């Protein structure tokens, strides 16, 4: 059980983490998400007592980390796979950590086997690949057989077999009743591994809820309906019929319809009543990635811009046509990933209830516009999450 | 979660109870021991013997002290040792060799900061003072044993080569010489812990050793600086070693120089402890 209360960390005048409060509970895998530079690693370091919080506190099982009597036996952590002395071989690295907390040496050989490094145990870790380094870091975290485990980007650099292994490892650790706290940028992996999510952006809490709630609050499920391409009037007819029945219908670029607010059988019935044939009627579940992108789009610090290559382009001969530039999805377009919210004007995520919808960060995203980020402006109530207003619904989300 | 309570039926709350009823929280079958300095000492011993920088610096140190010592020993005559101890050939090697111990002392701690290992170490032992204490003890013992062995070896070789009839007992110079260079290394370790940067700490330590040896030549030029220059001349590291090996017995045998180094080292260690607990890693 990890409990943070009002956790704040400032480096000079830069606030890395502000007023963060959350609980990480045993028996579940809790994912820790946020854009680059949002304060995830700082939070992890404060949990482990490496950095002292400027304000607030974080405890593990009721004690600050540095007050735990034999900390590695209660908390295991993988912070940075490269945080080893490269000149020391893998077994000695683990051995010196084991000796530090009175763990018998045979446990070292056990965890080397668990992470699959027994064959390179006597090789210096300098020559390890990123994936092998991760395995060594995971071995160090498992060494004390602790009740609480923290992993910062554990699957970084692992091969597909290793990713699957880590996924199952996390789940089995949680199933044994341990507290597992994992940060990752791989949304597909998180969707498969985590039960609960804590999302931060710019050092502040954005969401603390189960994965399912997170997705359904931040992105809508919808049905895709396709009428025969040859008969456009059928499409009009169905749109009218569905709208009349209370559904929300959006046209997609390729002629299909996106229907929200109506269950699939009802859509089928309505089509039948309207005498419209269907070529497709398919359910679409929003992904964690969509939900995450939507939630954090205002809190991204490092965003790519379109590569202009200005000044490097040779002047074209008269009459020549410049080659068409294909847009890269997401590049220079802050709102690209935003799927529609569950309902218009609704709360995109249901963290603390009863927030007014006019949040400081909720301006609809304008693709490609160089407007100042509203998130970056000082806010009088900083801990307030961002209930976004309804975004531009006509944007073709599936164009990527 | 203070006291574990048996699961009761009244906990049928609508929200899932994450607070883990007893039995669901994990208990390791490996017995948990209460950690103490002994664990940290074992860990640091594993660390210091498992990196190549230890072998390199101590290897070069032995090569310099013993190698140069033996070369000097065979080029001296028995008459040279009537008033000086047999360990004197080790002095010339120690002047260079002390830099190896300084380098090792710095690396023992700063290599952990350079590689990021320190975060792993302090996660495994949040009692940071214990880690630093273990580092200081292990390094001092290793440095003292190796330097006493090297000086002693040179002394034995020289005495067997030159009849062993010197009027001066040389046991004291083995211990004090080893103590002086080991303390220099410990000072380097403390400086490395404060600066957290290998190159910076080694450079600082070279300055501490070399500047007082070079600067007096310039300070002596002006009358107002003369007393400072004389003090520096008296207390710089090469001169302190020279006195310990009784090259110049008129002005003491290095006791006050050793005391000064011990004082400076103690102050640096105190500073290292104070910063260690306060700073983020």
Automatic annotation (TrEMBL), chain A:
Entry keyword set: ATP-binding, Nucleotide-binding, Transport
Keyword Protein biosynthesis belongs to the record: no
CDD domains associated with the record: ABC_BcrA_bacitracin_resist
Transmembrane stretches, start-end: none
Biased composition (Pro residues): 375-385
SMART domains, per database record: AAA
Bias (Low complexity): 360-374
GO MF annotation list: ATP binding; ATP hydrolysis activity
Record's protein name: ABC transporter ATP-binding protein
Species per Swiss-Prot/TrEMBL record: Streptomyces fructofermentans
TrEMBL record, chain B:
Name of the protein: ABC transporter
Entry-linked PANTHER family: INTEGRAL MEMBRANE PROTEIN-RELATED (PTHR37305), MEMBRANE PROTEIN (PTHR37305:SF1)
Domain of life: Bacteria
Low complexity biased stretches: 8-21
Swiss-Prot/TrEMBL keywords: Membrane, Transmembrane, Transmembrane helix
Organism taxonomic ancestry: Bacteria, Bacillati, Actinomycetota, Actinomycetes, Kitasatosporales
Keyword Transmembrane helix: yes
Residue span of region Disordered: 1-21
